[in-house]
Amino acid sequence: MNLFLESLRSALASIRAHRLRSFLTSLGIVIGVASVITVISLIQGLSKSVSDQFEGLGGNGLTIRPHNEFKDVMRGKVNYLNFEDVAQLHLRVDGIRNLSPVFTPGFSEVRFTGMSATAQVFATSASYQEVNGRYARLGRFLSDSDDAGARRVAVIGEKLIDDLHLPPNPVGQFVLYANEWFKIVGVMEKRGEIFGMSQDNYMIIPFKTGRSIIGNNTRPQLQITVAVRDLGRLDATRSHIRMVMRQAHRLKAEDSDDFEIESADQIAKSFDKLSSTVTLVMSGVVGIALLVGGIGIMNIMLVSVKERTREIGICKAIGARSRDILLQFLIEAVTLSLLGGLLGLAIGYALGVAIAAMIPDFPPAVVPWWAVALSVLFSGSVGVVFGVVPASQAARLDPIDALRYE
């Protein structure tokens, strides 16, 4: 232990004595680690933000939507869900606690006393708020009687209030949509922004009202969100839904599904997988910088061995063993590499925070513990790998030749 501490003290003294050279030597490690941490902190911050957004959809939800491949759409073959699918699922699947069909009528312009705004308008049922866990902040949400009577009522998002210059409490006001007047009965809770885009720029109208707007000859891209009664039977409920949907669409045994069933956590996991892949690819690319940094450390350590040849000879002459010399130079290389890694870690985190702050509405940077551990471990490993050659060269020096070295 004393030998180790003495070697560490000697390494720190050598680094202090040649501050500029030590900094330039470890610059490759600093740049490499800083780049990795910057990229990881931004991606992880983005991933956490998206995961939080999907958590709001409810982990007990399944979403059924038509399955359309790009090549089929280009050929004019488009699959749809039918309005009758909603009734079939209601009647025949026991594991469903509630479901909410959603579609967009196709018009997006909303007007109010001369002001107009483009909004996402969708028609859905009263169960939407329970299935999706989103509730009205002011007024009320759509009711079953609104839907049954195909009433011209609407619930709006916060941003539409600003875009249309509506009063702070717009409940009771009328807006013009699809050439019809809709009475605002509620304002939904604010959801904020994601990827710089507002999630509050929308208007919700009753399901049957939407159907009456599009008429009987138009087939909308309908999707159905399902709240499962028992999470433990999620897979069984998914299988039951698939069977009912295949029968409702009269699909033969050899036909593939013309619909797809996804869960909210499945979408979040897909994004996590994507972000992990991007992180791995970026880490691999930036790892080249660490390799270059390691080669730089090896070169400087080889020069250091030459410069300190007489010092090595004196140490061996007074009793130092080859393994002592090996340990001293190896610890010096690892210390240099580790200090570079820690400096890169701090710079990378600062860069991640600064970049996230400069991009509007970008989520805060997050540095996971495993990224810190990997950075320290990897920079230390670079020191070991590239410090072995100069350290072994110093250990093999003959004390007499070393003392004669000029």
Beta strand %: 15-25%
Evaluate the radius of gyration.
Answer: 33 Å
Total count of helical runs of at least 4 residues: 15
Order of helices and strands: HHHEHHEEEEHEHEHEEEEEHEHEHHHHH
Question: Can you offer a commentary on this structure?
Answer:
There is one protein chain. With 406 residues, the chain is an alpha+beta fold. 56% of the residues lie in helices and 17% in strands. It has 15 helices and 14 strands. The strands form two sheets. Strands 1, 2, 3, 4, 5, 6, 7, 8, 9, 12, 13 and 14 form a twelve-stranded mixed sheet that branches. Strand 3 (109-112) and strand 4 form a beta hairpin. Helix 5 packs across helix 10 and helix 11 packs across helix 13 (322-358). The protein is elongated. The two termini are 33 Å apart.
Give the SSE map.
Elements: H1 2-17, H2 19-25, H3 27-55, E1 61-66, H4 70-74, H5 83-92, E2 96-103, E3 109-112, E4 115-118, E5 120-124, H6 128-132, E6 136-139, H7 144-148, E7 153-156, H8 158-163, E8 174-177, E9 180-188, E10 193-194, E11 197-198, E12 202-206, H9 207-214, E13 223-228, H10 234-248, E14 259-263, H11 264-307, H12 309-317, H13 322-358, H14 369-395, H15 399-404
Parallel strand pairs: 5-12, 7-9
Antiparallel strand pairs: 1-13, 1-14, 2-5, 2-13, 3-4, 3-8, 6-9, 7-12, 8-9, 10-11
Helix pairs in contact: 1-13, 3-11, 3-13, 3-14, 5-10, 11-13, 11-14, 13-14
Quick description:
It contains 15 helices and 14 strands. It is an alpha+beta fold and 406 residues long. The protein starts with a helix and ends with a helix.
Any descriptors?
twelve-stranded mixed sheet, single chain, 15 helices, alpha+beta, 406 residues, two-stranded antiparallel ribbon, 56% helix
